[in-house]
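Title: Prediction job returns without error message
Component: structure pipeline
Severity: low
Priority: P3
Assignee: unassigned

Description:
Job completed but the reporter wants confirmation the result is attached to the right record. Sequence as submitted:
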Amino acid sequence: MVTESSFYKLMFIYHVYVVLYRFFYPMVNKEDIYFGGDWKYLTHWNAMIQIMYYLTNGVLVFNSDWKDKTSKITHQIFACVVFPLAGFVTVMFWSLYKISPSLVIDPNSEYQESDWMNHMKHSFV
């Protein structure tokens, strides 16, 4: 049985891996780096918000006093920000990808992302 703290740790590690992979293998062209870099993509914002959410909940699991006081707030943040944003990124990316992959992935880019990494970034809600 997976405990609550191990779930938050696993999710935190998962999202950190995705962001670090993007850091070491950037998707942005050299000319495009001056206009926002990775921060112009909603996928990157989504990953950062999920990292903060799972890190916060992972820390709160070990302090029962704080967890009792903040559980209402963290549940509200998940219901109003984290889950809708992740769902929006997933639905929009794969809908546009199904219509035409060139809508979301630049075919002329020197960097082409692997299918498994593309799935990791855009499918995990």
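Comment from assignee: result matches the submitted record. The CA atoms of residues 96 and 103 lie 6 Å apart.
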